Amino acid sequence: MNETIDPDIPAPAYACDSHFHVFGDPARFPYRDPKLRYKPPIAPLADYLTRARRIGIERFVFVQPSAYLRDNSCQLEAMAQMGAACRGIVDIDEDAPDALFESLHRQNVRGIRINVSPIHPPEDGLAERLLPRINLLEKRCQAFGWHLDFLLPGWLTERLLPRIADLEVDCTLAHLGMFAAALGPEQPGFVKLLRLLESGSGRHWVKLTGFYRVSREPPHYNNVAPMMQALAAVAPDRLIWGSDDPHLSFAHETGTITLYNLMCRWAASPALLQKILVDNPARLYGFDTPG
């Protein structure tokens, strides 16, 4: 895909991509999910870095792909190449030994995924079945200063918001909470999220990621802009951007650089971009403050 950087919106120094994935050769890193919902690509770190460095990304947050379930080895190998410039979000058993948590922390892991397919249809009882895992992982994250990273379909985000509101650790919601952009920022679930961001504990963060997952209006996804702007109006200090590279089945529609350009145009303000790309991820992921 031939993409160009918008010359009017250069990335600020220490810009961070807060959500992307790597996929290795399945001969070395076999997929663990017997019910894969997508065809995993071979997407090595070097290919991603070619795109990210064209934007000016200097900090990197790896997110464990669902294809590998709780085998984080592919991601950890890639993270080892990046050193202090990276952080990682893993998938892990809630009852894993402390020694594993300690090892992962030394490898710059700072969060755990709670991942339900974003296309999972409404299902009675699913939210309740997730609560034991959420409760246990909340305590494990407290001990290590980590956060919980939620990828949920929008209906499930809404059902879990009361529990999410009470978390005593930070948490992130991927893909704007997976609320459909076609329904706009006035839809009930998204309004509940805005209220939580405005009046909650301040532990709740939203990832400006996966615009193609919440909108069916490629290539510009214009109906996402009001959603992002509503979030920025109530919580500019708790928004972070991620490319969602390598985009899996959406790669034919829009690539990393185009998605970056869109987010920057919707933000409109250099001050807001500084927060989204630098200041906010530095606080959440514990990157050193420059200067």
What's the alpha carbon Rg, rounded to whole Å?
18 Å
Contiguous helical run count = 10
Largest sheet: 8 strands, parallel
* Uncertain spans: none
Assembly context of the chains: single chain
Q: Which sequence of strands runs across the widest sheet?
A: 1-2-3-4-5-6-7-8
CATH secondary-structure class: Alpha Beta
Give the N-terminus to C-terminus distance in angstroms.
37 Å
The mean pLDDT is: 94
SSE-based structural type: alpha/beta
Order of SSEs, N→C? EHEHEHEHEHEHEHHEHH
| CATH fold-type name | TIM Barrel
Structure report:
The protein has helices at 45-55, 73-80, 98-106, 126-144, 154-165, 188-199, 211-214, 225-234, 256-267, 270-285; strands at 16-20, 59-63, 86-90, 109-115, 147-151, 171-173, 204-208, 239-241. It is 39% helix and 13% strand. The protein is globular. The mean pLDDT is 94. It has 291 residues and is an alpha/beta fold. Helix 5 (154-165) packs parallel to helix 6.
Summarize the structure.
It is built from 10 helices and 8 strands. With 291 residues, the protein is an alpha/beta fold.
Produce the secondary structure layout.
Elements: E1 16-20, H1 45-55, E2 59-63, H2 73-80, E3 86-90, H3 98-106, E4 109-115, H4 126-144, E5 147-151, H5 154-165, E6 171-173, H6 188-199, E7 204-208, H7 211-214, H8 225-234, E8 239-241, H9 256-267, H10 270-285
Parallel strand pairs: 1-2, 2-3, 3-4, 4-5, 5-6, 6-7, 7-8
Helix pairs in contact: 5-6
